[in-house]
UniProtKB/TrEMBL annotation:
InterPro entries: AAA+_ATPase (IPR003593), ABC_transporter-like_ATP-bd (IPR003439), ABC_transporter-like_CS (IPR017871), ABC_transpr_LolD-like (IPR015854), P-loop_NTPase (IPR027417). This is Cell division ATP-binding protein FtsE. GO terms for cellular component: plasma membrane. Residues 2-227 form the ABC transporter domain. GO terms for molecular function: ATP binding; ATP hydrolysis activity; transmembrane transporter activity. Pfam families: ABC_tran. The lineage of its organism: Bacteria, Pseudomonadati, Chlorobiota, Chlorobiia, Chlorobiales.
Length: 227
């Protein structure tokens, strides 16, 4: 599903990735960890092709960074569900409208939008709140809306950058459980996290970015992962 082949990336003076190879199979759930400035966001940006590697290639589904034209990048992004901190909800639109928006801009028919949005809201447990404004929801509920918006177009990969970052520990576990449920439907998930409590509670593959490389690391219970 995702392959990095001999990828190097320099940003400013930082060698963020140095001849990195990585393979992620369809249906995997993967945590991405690493210290501040290690390159976690840069990895996600390469996957949605907002950043091009200086050398090597990034393959996401049928899209390859060395072949893709700028005009094709929106098609790639339609296959990606994106849950980022700076990708806010519209305060003046209802929960339903926030989720529907993604489909409206891609020209999906009204009836189909209603069905897809209802399904997505039901999946995240927010059917009852469809007419609320986001400001009337709790932080965890708002994050559920963000997740509904990310999955409504039935992506094959979900990319999440600290999806539980600002939430209480219990709510964070609920949100991660929801992401796991979505993953079990067959969607490949990559999620950046700093939260080892979460990794402990909901175990999955862990990739650590360090010194320009990406390592698979084993999480040992009772022992903090070194950062
Ligand atoms: N546009 C840029 N120009 C120069 N350097 C950059 C640029 N963007 C990012 N960097 C540097 O590249 C490195 C990787 O940044 P990145 O944002 O991917 O790290 P991160 O692991 O997501 O960090 P954090 O956990 O702090 O968000 C950092 O050293 C950062 O300062």
């Amino acid at each position: 599903m995702i392959t990095l082949s001999d990828v190097s990336l320099q940003l400013g003076r930082n060698q963020v990735f140095d001849h990195v190879d990585l393979q992620i199979e369809r249906g995997e759930l993967v945590y991405i960890v690493g210290g501040s400035g290690a390159g976690k966001s840069s990895l996600l940006r390469m996957l949605y092709m907002d950043l091009q590697p200086d050398s090597g290639s990034v393959q996401v589904g049928e899209f390859n960074s060395t072949l893709i034209k700028r005009s094709e990048i929106p098609y790639l992004r339609r296959h990606l569900g994106i849950v980022f901190q700076d990708f806010k909800l519209f305060d003046d639109r209802s929960v339903f409208e926030n989720v529907a928006f993604v489909l409206e801009v891609t020209g999906v028919k009204r009836k189909l939008i209603a069905k897809k949005v209802s399904d997505a809201l039901s999946e995240v447990g927010l059917s009852q709140k469809r007419n609320e404004l986001p400001v009337h929801l709790s932080g965890g509920e708002q994050q559920r809306v963000v997740i509904a918006r990310a999955i409504v177009s039935e992506p094959y990969v979900l990319l999440a950058d600290e999806p539980t970052g600002n939430l209480d520990p219990d709510v964070a576990v609920e949100i991660m459980s929801l992401i796991k449920k979505i993953n079990l439907r067959g969607i490949t998930v990559l999620t950046v996290t700093h939260d080892y409590n979460l990794v402990k509670k909901i175990p999955a593959r862990i990739l650590q970015i360090k010194d320009g490389k990406i390592f698979d690391v084993q999480f040992k219970k009772n022992e903090p992962v070194k950062r």
